[in-house]
User: Fold this.
Amino acid sequence: MTEQKTAEQKQPEAHRSWVNVGIFFSTLGILILICAFGYGYFALSKVNVDLAQMVADLTQKNAGHQHDIATMQTSLNDLQQIAQKSQALSAQQEQFMSEWRSAQKGDLNKWRIAEAQYLVKLADDQLQFSNNIQLAILLAQEADKILANMQDASVNEIRNSLATDLLNLRAAPQVDITALYLRLTALNKQVDKLSLPFNPIKVEQTNLPATNTAGLPWWKAGLVYSWDALRKIVVVRNYGSNILPLVMPDEKIFLYQNLHAQMEDVMWGLLHRHAEVYKASLLRATAWIKQYFAQEAQETKTMLHEMDALQKENVQPAVMNLSNTLQLFEQYYAQEK
Assistant:
């Protein structure tokens, strides 16, 4: 009986040990699976990161290639445009050479007439837009030399008109804008040297007779006494209209600045050949100098004399043109057709 009980007790213990072994191996297997899953997840994540980096690199390289392709396409378009321009230029040169060969075989008078007309047109533009008479004369003289070398009586009328234009241009009054501008610049620099007038107030001793207050009430006597005292303190003088007004020290800088601004308006009118602005600004500056600055000073006298001389300059002479001569050129071409 004892052995049977012992055997029965050993059977559950053996069974329990096998269960524990099973649990151990099961737990060990689960741990191994968890570790394997974790390792697999880590490896997969690393692969995904590497793949993402590779995709980003490929995208960047693709963008670089696209930019290179766009640059190459732009260069190709530029080369095509250059080639087209070169072809157009070659065609123009070929046409020019063809016309020149044709002109050599035929009459060169048309070429000379066209050149003379172009020079006269340039001279007319110089007169219209910049009133440059000297340059217009030079251009017209060159045109006359070209016409003089032609043995064609049909251009005599053009030469006569051109000779009249040259005579009128030489007789036209010319304004030296550069010299006048330099004179105005020098005057503008002299503005700061103008001296302001100094009119000191002379203190005069006035002995006014005292008013008799005998027999007056005390309050009337006090009023009379106050009035006598006030007459001795406040003195009103009239210096007449010939005395220049005084300028306060803090207003002096504004006076000089305003005068500089007027001189700059004069120079603007000169450069733009605007006679109204030129003369109005000169008159206004002259009036200010006469009103605010010391007239007995030599600087003031010199500046006023120079400004009076500048007012006599005509900065906007009559505009001339060569329209008659240009019209004769057109008539010449009309006769040749």
Confidence is low (pLDDT under 50) at residues 200-205, 239-246. The chain has three domains: 1-106, 107-174+320-336, 177-199+241-311. The chain has ten helices and no strands. The radius of gyration is 53 Å.
